[in-house]
Amino acid sequence: MNKQDFTTGFLVDQTPKEVFEAINDVRGWWTEGVEGNTEKLNDEFFVQFWNVHYSKQRLIEVVPYSKIVWLITESKLTFIDDESEWTGTQIVFDITKKGEQTEVRFTHIGLVPQGECYNDCSNAWTGYINNSLKNLITTGKGNPTTKEELTK
Questions:
Q1: Domain spans of the chain?
Q2: What does the pLDDT look like over 57-77, one tens digit per residue?
Q3: What fold does the segment set 6-150 form as a domain?
Q4: d(CA 121, CA 127)
Q5: What percent of the chain lies above the pLDDT cut of 90?
């Protein structure tokens, strides 16, 4: 992992199992508009945010209660010049027990400060990870982009 890759994380009181299950509930924290499966090795899913973001992900590593890795196999980000900037990048969720708590460490390998999407994408990820995913884990309710929002 390059230390410039975007990384964020948090600690929660829930177990690694609860954290793992919440991460796999992508509809519960990222967007209700997920199409496909999001839980097992080689599952593929895609997301579409209006006409500005499309990406297709494949789960390439799934270690129960410890690690999940998505490979972005296709992307089209229409708000930047290199619309396929995410293609070939990876999303990594590391889940680690820290004393009585569980640490969630999110890294988007390939989302680097030199990239055109870095500022907008890192801000979006921060909201989805540190707010929506954390809320899903701690309260059972995330703040994903809703299907209604996607049709506006």
A1: 6-150
A2: 999 999 999 999 999 999 999
A3: Alpha-D-Glucose-1,6-Bisphosphate; Chain A, domain 4 (3.30.530)
A4: 10
A5: 91
Amino acid at the residue 14: Q
What secondary structure letter does DSSP report for 145? B
**CA 120 centroid distance within chain:** 15
Give the predicted TM-score (pTM) of the model.
Answer: 0.95
- Predicted local distance difference test score (pLDDT) of residue 2: 47
Cα 117 from Cα 111, distance rounded (Å): 8
Query: Which of 84, 79, 80, 26 is closest to 55 using CA atoms?
Result: 84
Q: What's the one-letter identity of residue 4? A: Q
Cβ partners under 8 Å of residue 68, min gap 6: 20, 23, 24, 59, 61, 62, 92, 93, 95
Express each pLDDT in 74-118 by its tens digit: 999 999 999 999 999 999 999 999 999 999 999 999 999 999 999
